[in-house]
Amino acid sequence: MNDADITNLATSFSDDTRSGFELPELYLSDEWMDDDLVSAVSGMNHSYGYQTSDDASAFFSGSSSSFSHHESPSTNASLPAATVTASSENQIKQQKKKVRERVAFKTRSEVEVLDDGFKWRKYGKKMVKNSPNPRNYYKCSVDGCPVKKRIERDRDDSSFVITTYEGSHNHSSSMA
DNA sequence: CGTCTTTGACCCGCGC
DNA sequence: GCGCGGGTCAAAGACG
Q1: What is the C-alpha to C-alpha distance for residues A176 and A161, in angstroms, rounded to an integer?
Q2: What pLDDT is attached to residue A122?
Q3: What is the pLDDT of residue A40?
Q4: pLDDT tens, A50-85?
Q5: Which residues are in the WRKY domain (predicted)?
Q6: Residue A144 — left, alpha, or beta (φ > 0 → left; ψ -120 to 50 → alpha)?
Q7: Sign of dihedral through CA atoms A8, A14, A15, A19?
Q8: Which residue, A44, A46, A5, A37, is CA-closest to A162?
Q9: Is this model's pTM higher than 0.85 or not?
Q10: Which positions on chain C have an atom < 7 Å from some protein CB?
Q11: Which residue, A161, A40, A163, A171, is CA-closest to A102?
């Protein structure tokens, strides 16, 4: 993914505010640690001005196209300020380290499973060390699609849900 | 009847 | 080499 995609993604989310679902507060790519994520969220001084909602359906619908990422391992430096703030130091090692494309969202939601227009099949659940909340692992149920998704609740604010996407879809959308 | 969840076991990388 | 933490598999059941 490149910064253009990220920006587009964020924009799409902002647009989706009207769809009745809360917007992600954060997006990150590549490697990130829990602490980095938390601090990144805390460090964000801007907001999209969205409200919360209980209805998660149609969250990503309309912005699914933004999810077709592509390999671009060395575009971290171009990320928006908010993301850079997350780990200016870590970015150095991030760039060195070979990581898959990874995007993390922190959403304020009651439900973990956000309907993003794709069909997901849960394949694992795990209790993480630093959190009282379990972590759920989902895989795109479309054949040949390598996209994985990891969902866990914020360990401080259980009202927040952290969704991490990994990989890129082979298909535009499984539904439709 | 086909698809998805659940859940423990298994596996793998890493630090000690 | 072992233990631990994290990620995945797969059998069985639930669900439509």
Answers
A1: 26
A2: 92
A3: 40
A4: 223 333 333 343 333 333 333 333 333 333 333 333
A5: 109-174
A6: left
A7: positive
A8: A37
A9: no
A10: 5-10
A11: A163
| Pick from A85, A80, A151: nearest CA to A112 | A151
Q: Quickly tell me which residue has 């040949």 as its tokens.
A: A144
Alpha-carbon distance of A148 to A88, in angstroms, equals 26
In this prediction, residue A110 carries a pLDDT of: 63
Enumerate residue ranges in chain A where pLDDT < 70.
1-102, 109-116, 170, 172-176
Q: If you search the block for the tokens 């209805």, which residue do you land on?
A: A55
Footprint of strand C on the protein (CB under 7 A): A 123-126, 128-130, 135, 137, 139, 148, 150
The Å distance, CA of A164 to C1' of C14, is: 27
